[in-house]
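I hope you will forgive my troubling you with a question about protein structure. The full record is reproduced below for your convenience:

——
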Amino acid sequence: MSSTSQPSLRLDAEQLYDVLLKGVRKLLDQDTALVGVWSGGAWLAERLSKDLGRSEPHGTISSALHRDDFSRRGMAVSRDATQLPFEIEGRHILLIDDVLYTGRTTRAVVNELFDFGRPASVTLVVLVDRGGRELPIEPAFSAARITLPAEERVSLGRDDATGQFTFQFERV
């Protein structure tokens, strides 16, 4: 059972988004496809695509089919299905996520990505890197690096009316 807690850290999601936008600009070229990890990463990819004036739609990728924690989480069928409106084979992929923690979600989405073809490269960018890696996965760019206790979670929230980002903290 989880309950909402007061954040032990104050983060301004909009300010960090601006940092992420600048970092992504430096990593992006015309042949790079944006792919956001469901759900926070997908929101970021959607907004980045718009703010960068990209004509190609961004993709959304789900970790559901390749997770290694089915026994704890189960496999829920939901609207977070992978949608990649472009060819993966030979493309440079900029994989975007909101929060990087253990690296297990990133591993799962890379496995999912390879189900659609073999990209030329996959570069990971994240809004927040909270450390605590269990796998050898590192982002090429993160807008912030923080440390949280293992029992505390942080995720990106989005106001549907305004599109503004916020952070949500939770104790588990």
